[in-house]
Write a structure and sequence with these properties.
38% of the residues lie in helices and 15% in strands. By secondary structure, it is of the alpha/beta class. Strand 4, helix 5 and strand 5 form a beta-alpha-beta unit. It has a 6-stranded parallel beta sheet, with helices on both faces. The protein is globular.
């Protein structure tokens, strides 16, 4: 007899063309029935379109990875940020609730002000300092108000093979230049999309835990430490990099940033460990795997 927990789930992934959404859709399609929507297929800012697409299909779990993630654009396009990051998740939660399904809403460490000196837990007060953080926090609130079974997952510094991120930008620069630099006084934890897909598996069941959940690879680092480790791994695995070291920059000197960035947003994964009995693997291991297996496949600019 097949155990209920092992039955395939009907999963919809919104934002399936993005870095995280593409990874989740691919990984889960190996054992579940997955339907993915990218931006061209579904405009989450159009509530009518959301209803038209989602009302027409049956699903057990709806995973929303889509959002306006351009932190600086959110400062100048506040209305757009709240439509995409708050109102759209509210509509999705409403649709999921009506179907008796679970919404997993992907959120961000930027809901915190960065004034802490130890990892943030789910119980810590969210006090965003940017429009991006405000809009994502409002989306969290609206999703959680729609039903106890819905899950808001906060992540940080997401990287993976499907779209370029910070790590790809650093390595691309190191290939072309003998100098590289990154901010040394901003701290969080990188989150590998393939690890995140595994960490989310226990929460795909509609009857699994809801509420807030922090997910990231374990440990913490600055952007400079993150970049330096990526270069170290690149050299170890034979990537043709000109730069060997990453010079420190100060967050206050990043004049190209429009929005304020929180300095410290390390997420505590204690609740995840209590629920699953498993700690996330260290970020250094995850980055090493990514550099060894995927660097050279794609390159991109720093986010």
């Amino acid at each position: 007899m097949v155990e209920p927990d092992s039955l395939p789930q009907r999963i919809v992934v919104i934002g399936a063309g993005g870095r995280l959404g593409a990874a989740l859709a691919r990984e889960y399609s190996r054992e579940h029935r997955v339907v993915g929507f990218n931006h061209a297929q579904l405009d989450i800012g159009d509530a009518g379109q959301l209803h038209a697409r989602l009302d027409a299909i049956e699903f057990d779990v709806l995973i929303n990875c889509a959002a306006q993630t351009n932190v600086d654009r959110c400062e100048t396009e506040r209305d757009e940020a709240f439509v995409l990051n708050a109102e759209a998740p509210r509509v999705m939660a409403e649709i999921a609730t009506g179907k008796g399904a679970k919404l997993i809403q992907i959120s961000t460490d930027y809901v915190f002000d960065g004034e802490a000196t130890s990892p943030y837990s789910e119980e810590d007060e969210a006090r965003p300092i940017s429009v991006y953080g405000e809009s994502k926090r409002e989306g969290e609130r609206l999703v959680l108000a729609a039903g106890d079974r819905h899950l808001v997952v906060r992540v940080s510094w997401v990287f993976g093979p499907d779209r370029p991120s910070f790590i790809d930008g650093v390595i691309a620069r190191a290939r072309e230049h003998e100098e590289a630099a990154a901010v040394a006084d901003k701290f969080s934890a990188p989150t590998y999309t393939l690890d995140l897909a595994e960490m989310l598996r226990p929460f795909l069941r509609p009857d699994s835990a809801g509420g807030l959940l922090h997910l990231a690879n374990s440990g913490e680092c600055s952007w400079q430490e993150y970049a330096q480790w990526a270069l170290d791994c690149g050299h170890e695995f034979g990537s043709p990099l000109k730069a060997k070291t990453v010079a420190p920059l100060a967050l206050v000197d990043m004049s190209n940033f429009v929005a304020r960035r929180p300095r410290y947003t390390v997420l505590s994964t204690s609740r995840y460990e209590q629920l699953t009995g498993e700690p996330p693997r260290p970020w250094r291991e995850a980055v090493a795997d990514y550099v060894r297996e995927h660097v050279g496949v794609q390159q991109g600019r720093i986010r």
